[in-house]
Amino acid sequence: MATNLLAQAERLWTSLQGLGVRRLVALALIGVAVFAVTGVAGYYLSRPTMETLYSGLDRDDIAAIGAALREAGVPFDVNAESTIILTPAGQAATARMILAEKGLPRSGAVGNELFDKLGSLGLTSFMQDVTRLRALEGELARTIQMMRTVKAARVHIVLPDEGSFRRERQPSSASVVIRTDGGDDRATGQAIRHLVASAVPGMKIDDVTVLNVDGRLLASGTDSIEKSPDNLLSLEKEVSQEIREGVTRTLTPYLSSRNFQISVAARLNADKTQTNETIYNPDSRVERSVRVTKEQQSSQNAAGAQAAGVEANLPKQNGSGAESKQSNDQTQKREELTNYEVSSKSIQTTSAGFLIQNLSVAVLINRSALTASLGDKAGPEAVVAQIKEIEQLVASAAGLDKQRGDVVKISVVDFVDSSRDLEPAAGLTILEILARQTGSIVNAGAVVLVAAMVIWFGVRPGLKMLLASPAVASAAAADATPALAPPESGQNFLIESDDGRDAFLEALLASRDNGPERKLQKLVEFDENQAATILKQWIRQGANG
After folding, report:
1. In this structure, are residues 383 and 412 in contact, taking their beta carbons and an 8 Å threshold?
2. Beta bridge partners of 292
3. Contact 181, 149 (CB under 8 A)
4. 349 neighbors 396 (Cβ within 8 angstroms)
5. pTM of the model
6. Which uninterrupted H or E stretch holds 113?
7. Where are the beta strands (DSSP E) in 387-428?
8. Would you tell me how many other CB atoms lie within 10 Å of the CB of residue 372?
9. For residue range 444-478, what is the model confidence (pLDDT) as tens digits?
C-alpha cells in the first residue's frame, strides 16, 4: 500500500515537472481563484438571517451596544448608515436582555448623567439652567417609558423666567409625545399628566398636554366631560368594560369562559345639575317673643234725671214721686301673641359627574355546553329555567334597574368550532417547514451552484491540462530519439486504441536517457501487437523514403 502511494506520488511529481513553468503558474492561479471564489461565496451566502435589534440609534449608542454584545459573545452587524443594529434571527431577545442590564440603548434619553460631564470652570448660569432642564426632561421620559404600553416618549418642559419687575408669575407648562402599542391611550395620558405635574414644582395638571405620535390629542387643559365629547365616550367604554368584567367573573364558575360571550352598552348622562332645597321642621320650634294686650271699659247710664239748672240744685221734697233709671256697663279684653322660631335647613347640591342613563347587556351561550351542564335533565323546560336563572345572575352582577330602562338579552346558540380550542396544535407540515427554510435552502443552493460553476469552468480546464501533459512529454521524447518517434497517424492510433497509454508514456519519459534498444524492448514487453504495428509503419515509411 505504501509502495503504491509512493509510486503514485512519484508519477504525479514527474507529470508536474513535465507541464512546464507557464502551465504550473496557470494551474496555481486557477487553484487560488477556485478557493477564493468558493470561500467568498460561501461566506456571503451562508450567513445567518439577520433581524433588527434597534433602529434610529446614534453613533454613541451603536458603539456602546457593539462593545456590550462583543463582550457577551453575541454576533451582530450594523447597516451602512450606522443607525440600525442587527443580530441573527432568534437571538434578539437575549441581546435585548443583555443590553437592558447595562442600560442600553440610551438614545438621547439622558437624565442626571449630564451632570457627570459638566466642568466647574466656564459654566454660565444659562448653561446650568439648560442642563438642569434637560436632565429633568430625560428623567421624566425614562419614567414614562417604564409604563407597560408606552414604547417611547419625549418630554418638553417650559419653566417660568424669574424676574424682579414682573407682577404676574408665568405658570410652568409641559408637553409629552408618546408612542404606544395599544391599550387605553386616554387613561395613559391622564396618568402621565399627574406624573409630570407632580414632578415639576409649581405645575398644575391642566398645564400638561399629552399627544401620541399620530397627532391625536390625549389630554389637554381642564379636559372635562362637557368640553370634550371624547372623554364621555371613553368613560362609557370604561363603565361597559367594568360591568362586562363583573358579569364574566360571575358566569365563569357556572360556565367556562369559552362557552359564553358578553356585550355591554352603557349610556351615561353627564349633564351638570344644581339643586337648592329648604326644609322646615314644625316639630322643632323655639319661643322667640310673647306679646300680651289687656283692654278694660266701664260705662254708666241714668234715665229721668233733671235738667241742669237752678231746680236741680234746690232741695228735694220728701216723698217726691219723680222716678229715675241708672245702668252700669263694664267690659274687659285680653290678647296674648307668642312668636316661635321654626328650624329650617337649606341644601344646595351641584352634580358635575355622570349618571347611568340605561344599560343594555347581551349574552350568548353555547347550546352544547348548556345542555351538557344539565345532564339527563336537558329538556326544553329545564333549558328555559336555566336561562332564567342565568338572566337573574347577569341582572344582579350588572346592577340592572328595570325602572331605569335597563335591558338584558340572553340567547342560546351553537358556537362555531367550539371544541377546537381544546385540540392540540397541529405540527408543521412539510410545506410549512420548507417555506420557513426557504432562505437557507436558497443560500445552500447558491453555494452549491457557485462551487459547481467554479469546478466546471476552473477545475475542469486544469484537469484537462494535467491529462494532456503526458502528450507534451512524449513529444519531447520523440524529439530526443527520432527513430522511436511514431508518425502522426500512428501516434493518434496509439493514443486512441491504448487504454494504458499513460503508464507507457510515463515509462518512456522515465527512461528517456536509455538507448533505442531498451525502449523497443519495453515497447514489446508492454504490448506486442502495438509494437508490431509500429514496426510495420516504420518499415513502410523506410521503404517509401
Report:
1. yes
2. 336
3. yes
4. no
5. 0.43
6. none
7. 407-413
8. 11
9. 777 778 777 777 776 676 666 655 544 444 444 44
3-state secondary structure of 133: helix
Q: At what angle do helices 528-544 and 488-497 cross, to 10 degrees?
A: 170
CA distances from 240 to 68, 171, 224, 397, 403 (A): 48, 38, 20, 13, 19
pLDDT tens-digit readout, 277-297: 888 777 777 777 888 888 888
Q: Which parts of 362-437 fold into alpha helices (H)?
A: 367-374, 380-398, 430-436
Judged on CB neighbours under 10 Å (0-12, 13-18, 19+), 456 is: exposed
* Rounded Cα distance, 249 and 343, in Å: 50
In the 3-class helix/strand/coil scheme, how is 330-370 assigned residue by residue? EEEEEEEEEEEEEEEEEEEEEECCCEEEEEEEEEEEEHHHH
How buried is 362 (Cβ within 10 angstroms: 0-12 exposed, 13-18 middle, 19+ buried)?
Answer: middle
Grid coordinates standing for 289?
A: 317673643
Residue 43 to residue 39: CA distance in whole angstroms: 6
**Residue 401 corresponds to which amino acid?**
D
Q: pLDDT exceeding 90 applies to what percent of the chain? A: 8
Phi, psi of 162 (to 5 degrees): -80, 130
Quote the distance between the C-alpha of residue 201 and its chain's center. 33
